[in-house]
Design goal:
The complex is a heterodimer of chains A (about 210) and B (about 220).
Chain A: H1 9-29, H2 35-48, H3 51-63, H4 65-73, H5 75-80, E1 91-96, E2 101-106, H6 115-118, H7 123-126, H8 128-133, H9 138-144, E3 154-159, E4 164-169, H10 181-185, H11 190-194
Parallel strand pairs in A: 1-4, 2-3
Chain B: H1 28-44, H2 48-56, H3 60-65, H4 68-82, H5 88-93, H6 112-118, E1 123-124, E2 137-140, E3 159-169, H7 172-175, E4 184-192, H8 193-197, E5 205-212, E6 216-217
Classes of the chains: A alpha/beta (about 210), B alpha+beta (about 220).
């Protein structure tokens, strides 16, 4: 699938823009869609549902051992305790990273992604390079993200081919003893919950 | 179908290019295409497996040349045209040329949050015991249906281990064709990298897929 930054695509994109506008006009006039509902759908995924949700889940698991147990045993209800649930997260499994095992999530067939905790997937997650190589050359893919995994660490790839949605519980960074849940959540990046990255180092926080 | 969407292990797509501080949408039309797709499934009445098949069932060059939301848009147009909800001329002109179908439910603004919260759970009550157990060795069947399947090419014929059992779930291969949910046991099956990619593969890697029971056979069933 093509990128977004090629000059020759601009005319094609404006053609698409016109087509979408025409489509929305027709569907609205026919009474099939309510533009106010469209606005709310967009606002929800642009402003409310995003990786900040997942970061709160991770920070809670890092600070509350009982919560961590519930999350790893059955993630869907544990996540619902924080009021995150629903579409594209009906059946969630949390994957625990350890010094021995690093987990990474992909959808080789389309773009399956745990929306309630991570929001909508980034372009690279849906792109051919990631979908093709994550399952055959995961360490090479991690290098594309600037991550070099220890050769002693096993790497475990989860291809989301059904309606089970996976997200990664990364390891809590050293040097964060006594940190509040809120401060810890600032260390949790989207990529660390996909497994294509690691949490921020405490020194990286301003 | 063995289309361009089945990308696992395909060579030649180059490096992954993460975008720092990436916005949720990259153009105004992407927002509308996304929302139209979510909203239209209510009056349209199709399921997620039909949506996926409508996006992927196209020539490789077409699939690969479209951006993600262009694929969503193309899939949505196809689903609507197939059901006579809208015509190609209407999309091209932006004018209503045919009478709207009566009696269809519209997603109202008040329904949005409930619809998102409900989602579309796919687990169903089992009607028979699971054939395989955690720890069992299984071979992925070799199938090449021209229709929708969630059995990727790169694991077909490979032997793996049952790692998780997820209950019974709606079967996409039939659900995508409107032939019913036909729920089946769903498993996570994991494979050594060397089983998938040969002796030179990274010895520290394992890959899993989620697989419905009819995708699996005992390794002894077939050479």
């Amino acid at each position: 699938m093509s990128g977004h930054d090629h000059d020759h695509e601009h005319s094609e994109l404006s053609e698409t823009e016109l087509r979408v506008r025409a489509l929305e006009t027709v569907l609205t006039e026919k009474g099939y869609v309510d533009p106010a509902a469209l606005d709310l759908l967009i606002e929800t995924y642009e402003k409310k549902v995003g990786p900040r949700n997942g970061a709160r889940v991770v920070a809670r698991a890092w600070t509350d051992p009982e919560y961590r147990k519930r999350l790893l045993a059955d993630a869907t209800p544990a996540i619902a305790e924080l009021n995150y649930a629903g579409r594209q997260g009906e059946h969630i499994i949390a994957l625990e990273n350890t010094p021995k095992t690093h987990n990474m999530v992909v959808c080789t067939l389309c773009s399956c992604y745990p929306w309630p905790v991570l929001g909508l997937p980034p372009v690279w997650y849906k792109s051919a390079p990631y979908r093709s190589r994550a399952v055959s050359d995961p360490r090479g893919v991690l290098r594309d993200f600037g991550v070099e995994l220890s050769p002693d660490t096993d790497i475990r790839i989860w291809d989301s081919t059904a309606e089970i949605r996976y997200f990664v519980l990364p390891m809590r960074p050293a040097g964060t003893d006594g940190w509040s849940e809120e401060r810890l959540a600032d260390l949790v990046t989207r990529d660390s919950m996909i497994g294509s990255g690691l949490p921020k180092h405490p020194n990286e926080l301003g | 179908m063995d289309g361009a969407q089945d990308m696992g292990g395909v060579e030649g797509f180059g490096p992954v290019q993460p975008e720092p501080n990436e916005p949720v949408f990259h153009a105004a039309w992407e927002r509308r295409a996304f929302a139209l797709t979510l909203a239209m499934s209510r009056p349209g009445g199709w399921n997620i497996d039909m949506s996926r098949f409508a996006r992927e069932n196209r020539p490789h060059a077409d699939y690969l040349s479209k951006s993600y939301y262009q694929l969503w848009l193309a899939g949505l147009e196809r689903l609507m045209i197939e059901r006579d909800l809208v015509s190609e001329d209407e999309i091209a002109s932006g004018r209503v040329l045919t009478v709207a179908k009566a009696g269809l439910k519209t997603l109202s603004r008040d329904d949005v949050m409930a619809m998102l919260h409900r989602g579309g759970p796919t687990e169903r009550d089992p009607t028979a015991p699971a054939r395989f157990a955690i720890g069992d060795q299984v071979r992925m069947k070799t199938i090449n249906p021209p229709t929708h399947t969630r059995l990727p090419r790169y694991v077909r014929g490979r032997v793996g281990t049952i790692e998780l059992l997820h209950g019974c779930h709606v079967f996409p291969d039939t659900n995508s064709l409107g032939q019913g949910e036909k729920p089946q046991w769903l498993y996570t099956v994991s494979f050594a990298g060397t089983e998938l990619w040969g002796a030179d593969a990274d010895p520290t890697m394992k890959v899993s897929v989620d697989a419905w029971e009819s995708y699996l056979e005992s390794p002894s069933e077939r050479a």
